[in-house]
Amino acid sequence: MSEKRKDKKGRIFRSGEGQRPNKTYFYCYHRNGDKKWCYVYAPTLEELRQKEEVIQRDLLDGIDYAAGEMTVIELVTRYMNLKRSLKENSFRAYDSVINRIREDPFGQKQIRHVKLSDAKSWFVSLHDRGYKQNTIGVMQCVVRPAFEMAVDDDILRKNPFKFKLSDVVPRDAYVRTALSREQQEQYLQFFMEYGGGSYYDDVVILLGTGLRVSELYGLTKSDLDFDRRCIHVRRQLSRTANQPYFISSPKTKSGVRTIPMTDTVYMALKRVLKNRASPKVEMLVDGCTGFIFLDKAGKPKVAMHLENFMRGLQRKHPWALGGDFPKVTPHVLRHTFCTNMQQAGIDIKSLQYLMGHSNASVTLDVYTHTDYNVVKRAFDQAAANL
Question: Which of 331, 335, 353, 372 is catalytic?
């Protein structure tokens, strides 16, 4: 009968256990259906046997213990490699998230060691370091389904990221303020007087349609129906460092829509077409050509052109509007249009359609702004009908 193996302290080893020359302990085992040996290590026999219990329980339940040794960034990368239906803009946002996780110490943590409290603590620490809730929310949109995939693959028992972000990180998103009627007139006058002529009609159209700026610059001549006075929104035009120009569908399925032209928008579009220089060769982007809005070089404008111009103009002449004047962006113009429509009495479903929202709650909660005077007028009108 062979002598039983013992450690340096005379304790008898169980099957698969052993001690290394540096006095640390190891346990080797086979994964389910795999002939390859897997090893785990621990500084003491007690700690090793705690790991053994977890391994044996996982093997019995079909959980792949060894696969749980992959890091958070490895899991996230594996998950993102399976995503093939992302739009270019979404891919860029997620790629930025992956880089942040890779640079964070949490990204090197083994996924089987990530508990619910660890996940919450990580988000809290990100917020303490200056990350906004919206940014952390995008990160959760990546790590949560990645960990859910690990659960589905029998690598983990539970998903530690299954919790409401608002329970651990306070809402601190910047609330865009809609411009008042007076501010709208003031801004348009400022824009014209201080050199915004080449973008003046762009601003007027955004303010009068609520279009996303990438939808505006995705318009081609065939999208305008001056007889019926309407705009057909069918696409977005964008540009990145990796992809000079590309076409994408509107942000949601509801984004494909037809927008009526006001008289102001009608005249602005007529001016744009009248002043539009005819390039020697019309640029073809993903099968689309004849883009209405062109820069000085005859190439289609994209969102960053207008965003940078508006930001620079207001920064260059801060005194012209006053120190307390809100920062105006294309998205503020979209907010303002939505609020104008709401205050004019349009019903919520029609407003949802005009904005291209898939859900009316977005229209109500994010894009409309009501003050006391508006509420008072609505109350007086309702009270008169009682």
Answer: 331
